[in-house]
Amino acid sequence: MGLEDSHARVISNKQLFGSLYLMELACPSVAANIMPGQFVHMEIPDLQASVLRRPFSIFDRDEDAGVVEILYQVVGAGTRAMSAWEPGMRCRMIGCVGRSWEAPFDTKRALLVGGGVGAAPLNLFCQELIDNDVDVDVILGAQTEGALVCRKRYQDACGKEPLCSTDDGSFGREGFATVLIEEALAEAERSGKPYDFAAVCGPEPLMRAASTMLLEAGVRCQVSMERRMACGVGACLSCVVETTEGRKRACVDGPIFDAEVIVW
Questions:
Q1: How far apart are alpha carbons 38 and 40 in whole angstroms?
Q2: How far apart are CA 227 and CA 241, in angstroms?
Q3: Are 216 and 77 spatial neighbours (Cβ–Cβ below 8 Å)?
Q4: Angstrom distance (rounded) from CA 146 to CA 243
Q5: Buried b (16+ CB within 10 A) or exposed e, 146-178
Q6: What is the pLDDT of residue 4?
Q7: What is the pLDDT of residue 48?
């Protein structure tokens, strides 16, 4: 499917914890065609101060019902306006944009690492891997227990509890998720079932540290490089990512990149 300007209708828009919200949207064309890791570029019709759309990853989808879910965090005027949307509100979105996650065809075991709302773009990929009989382990990091809003979704998908870390130690391991990555790699080595592939999404310092550890362990790794963007279709060059292959556009050349090409 090429880029399509679609209409969407809000079904629900719920506050999950603090600044984290989950929005359900009726948009059959996106629900039918979105690939894990791709995103939509959403219009904010009630934001008069800016005409620019906002990029959002798709957290989950129900293709039969024509419904998609967006997990978002209120960080500025656009998302603040979105948090007030009521059921029935309508907007437009360009989709489906960007490259998807792509594990090697012979992947047997994969590690997914999500920091904060970076857990959202990995959910559809997790489901795809499991459908392809891949053994998936998930590591989630957040500031506090309440912010681990994706934990049950991953637990239900994988049939096992994700490994979790929190900055304040309120749930799981206290500190950064990188300690859990180190432990997971060591366990995989001891078991004789090493990871074939890893995918990481979250704050850039986490992705940089995690991908370095994974690549040094010989695990192929991809990252999702989120950037502010204006057009979302590759024309404005506002979302460039520095790579060993030159400057790439996060919107259409990414947002998924092989970690070894990123110039951090």
A1: 7
A2: 8
A3: no
A4: 35
A5: ebbbbbebbeebbeeebbbbbeeeebbbeebbb
A6: 83
A7: 59
3-state SS, residue 73: strand
DSSP at 105: T
- pTM of the entire structure? 0.95
What does R_g of the chain's alpha carbons equal in angstroms? Answer: 18
Instruction: Locate 262 and state its tokens.
Output: 């990123």
Whole-number percent of the chain with pLDDT over 90 = 85
> Any residues with CB less than 8 A from the CB of 133 and at least 6 apart, and which?
none
Using alpha carbons, select from 67, 59, 87 the residue that is nearest to residue 26. 67
How many whole angstroms separate alpha carbon 225 and alpha carbon 254? 7
Place of tokens 């039969």: 64
pLDDT at residue number 231: 79
> Which residue in this structure is represented by tokens 């053994």?
135
Q: Give dist(CA 58, CA 61) in Å, integer.
A: 7
